[in-house]
Backbone:
């Protein structure tokens, strides 16, 4: 059961990072100006909010899970009673 959960967490982490990278690259291509010789970047609030929100959610999740993992590791190493 624990091994299956670790596999699912790793898969989620990998897919989330891949999707975030894809969204970042796609948004950079889409906000490029119409003139190919001059690059213009227009900050779209919706895209910015989605990117910042995704990063925030990911950091929250990783920090929460890291805290649990650290507690488990400390208990195993020091075998607290």
Residues:
């Amino acid at each position: 059961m624990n091994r299956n959960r670790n596999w699912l967490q790793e898969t989620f982490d990998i897919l989330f990072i891949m999707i975030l990278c894809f969204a970042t690259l796609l948004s950079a291509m889409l906000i490029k100006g119409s003139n190919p010789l001059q690059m213009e970047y227009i900050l779209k609030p919706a895209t910015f909010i989605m990117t910042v929100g995704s990063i925030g959610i990911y950091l929250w999740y990783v920090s929460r899970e890291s805290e649990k993992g650290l507690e488990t590791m400390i208990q195993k190493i020091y075998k607290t009673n």
In short: The helical segments are 2-30, 45-78.
